[in-house]
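Reply to dn_fold:

You asked what the input looked like. This is it:
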Amino acid sequence: MMHGPPRAVEYAAPSTRSSPRHGGFVRRVRALVVKESREVLRDPSSIAIGIVLPLLLILLFGYGLSLDVKDVPVAVVMADASPDAMELAAGFRLSPYFQTRIVPTMQEAEELLREKVVQGIVRLGLDFTWREQAGGATVQILVNGTDANQARIIQAFAQGAVAEWYARQAGEGRAHSGAGPVMVQSQLWFNEANDSRYFLVPGLIVLVMTLIGALLTAMVMSREWERGTLEALFVTPVRPGEILLGKMIPYFVLGLIGLVLCLLAARFLFHVPFRGSLALLVGVSMLYLSVALSIGLLISSAVKSQFVASQMAMLVTFLPAVMLSGFLFDLRSMPAFVRGISYLLPARYYVTLLQTIFLAGDVWSVVIPNTAILAGMAGLLLALTRATTRKRLA
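and this is what came back:
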């Protein structure tokens, strides 16, 4: 039985503000981190992308992929069987860069080149010895130009083999008077072994950080949308920034694990020289990982489908990191328009930092501007991600 006039009853919604004294922020973020960490451990795809795939990439790029040219099959046309010509041909046979095949005629060598049995032809004419004694001998080098980059490398190695032969002639006092070739003495800095793994392995870290940072986090929020668990999270007192932080931390740790695997492989498997500061390398890697995580969360916040989010992440982050970062291809050889686009990619600056720190050391004139650009990108992307994340269903 009610006595007196009815009174209005007000229900207060749970406060979204907690007293710092009770550590509400820390508790909420810790709970979200634990929740997301369990999701990662229960999801085989996350483990595969975060741990297994980096290991496969390390083995593939370190052992399977090489930009060095070795054991190139070449045909040496020996029309002149003089001792000097035989010695020059022996220089090609003993070189680790060539697999030499001696043929008597130019017609046979051309046929082998067309059939791709050989990749180049070294032709010593009938008058090679006479011209060499007169000081005007020539060696014709023909290279299969289907792969222009490989052709330039083969041409340079062949010219080097000829130059070595002439240097031996001169050193033994057997070089004839006349206009001999100019001998060039070259020296490589920062990669004395001339091994492509020395810059492929540091570049591999970019791919690992991009995969873990962007691809995995691109599916975090979209996965929650598809499963319908994000609505339950919206009715809790957690703030959008806390949601993002709780989802970033587990993948940040996963990215650092991938970084450690790459560094151990570079040091103990491939013996890549490391001339810079480890602390600086870890610092710029954490900065790039923050950029990649922000891009993934930004995509995940805007797209509610895991499939679409993963495709967008591949298109926006991974493929540009491979093609337009300078990891595999020289940016200076690209058209100006494409080169201009590369300045918008964080992977470009991270590749420059990694190759410099690994092979050249702490070159601050390179480190400072590239690090500053990455820091600016990280701040901008984190702000955009926070602005696009709202506790709403629409």
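The two ends are 44 Å apart (CA to CA).
Hope that clears it up.
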